[in-house]
Amino acid sequence: MMECECELKPREIRILRQILRFVVKHSRSPTVKELQLPLNRSEEEIIHALDELEKKDLLLRKKGTQEIISVYPLSLRPTQHQIILEDGTRLFAMCAVDALGMPVMFNKNAKIVSQCKECKQEVAFEIKSGEITFLSHPSATICSPKTRVYPAAETCCPLVNFFCSEKHADEWIDRNSRLRGNVNKVSVKQGFSKIRECWRQYGETLSIRQSGVGPSNG
After folding, report:
1. N or C terminus: which one in the chain shows less Cβ crowding within 10 Å?
2. Do 96 and 144 fall within a single domain?
3. How far apart are CA 112 and CA 114, in angstroms?
4. How far is CA 55 from CA 19, 69, 82, 186, 203, in A?
């Protein structure tokens, strides 16, 4: 789940930006060699940077290889949170909050297709110009633990989910007694303002936001 504070070194910002741009363009993660030329760095320097990002829980590689399988907030493996950009590009978010934030991070219009954790019914949203313009369920709710679960890049934040209604969120919490008292619950409509601001900041930190879409400053 997104944190507003991003303490990243310039070289880490450059490599994160390059990886994210590559994934959006090619729908797969780049190899070390594909990162070397645009970043003008040696293989050893690239691998060292990937090591550092993995230590910060911003990236995960397939064990024993340099294959990137998640780079915050994107998962290169399918999750239940799918983002469909206007040009048809399909991406997967690591959790519900990431799914709502990614269109803002990239400054792109998008449709989000997920599901209610309780009843498995499809829950869909559309974000245009930094605003939610469509909700399949007006009382859609997000639940997330009050303390962050590590490692997020590996687990994909399994406790940060959408629900079609507050009622289904409450039923899910009641059935998971270990979560009682340790869950933040907010409607998508109420929570989006904070999510939007955090992800706008993250997109600006990485210089990843694309021109052409002007999100609201509200």
Report:
1. C
2. yes
3. 7
4. 17, 15, 26, 30, 21
